[in-house]
């Protein structure tokens, strides 16, 4: 029963992490403009994401524009996109595989060992999915930090970490941790012992004593 609760907890955590990865990928706030200087800007906030860039005016109006061409993007941004999309697809596979191996599901009830192995395999897929998202967000964040501290970067073009990065870090950590919990349901090998030999029962007394 305890392993079933751990398995359910791991699946819930991994599933929430997968949802967070999807949200992080779709958000445009991967980096936001840093107004460190005395420059007068017309926009209240500038954001850039994997798919578009947005500007929020002082009136509260938000205008977003998708990137014109995929081939004109930086190779690092294309790699980040690929890693996040791969993470989402792996998470989708992990959801179906893990659900098949959950103890609370009725499928594959005839073979409990294979059922638990499916849950473990789903946990491994979730771990790989979380690692892919963690690499993508960390790589992107490292690029943002290096550009920010580069003395040759103009002040009005410096960016800081956006909220999508923090969501991505938290979501990938959840996916990895949840996948690890799912892997804890791995079936253990039972040690086989030789059957115990029974001792013959004493013959029932006939009530006659022999001298």
TrEMBL record:
Regions that span the bilayer: 7-27, 79-99, 119-141, 161-184
InterPro entries per record: Claudin, Claudin1, Claudin_CS, PMP22/EMP/MP20/Claudin
A Pfam cross-reference name: PMP22_Claudin
GO cellular component assignments: bicellular tight junction; plasma membrane
This protein's record includes keyword Plastid: no
Protein keywords: Cell junction, Cell membrane, Membrane, Tight junction, Transmembrane, Transmembrane helix
Keyword Membrane: yes
Subcellular compartments: Cell junction, Tight junction; Cell membrane
Membrane topology reported for the UniProt record: Multi-pass membrane protein
Gene Ontology molecular function: structural molecule activity
PANTHER family from the UniProt entry: CLAUDIN
Membership in a protein family: Belongs to the claudin family.
Record's function text: Claudins function as major constituents of the tight junction complexes that regulate the permeability of epithelia.
Name of the protein in its database record: Claudin
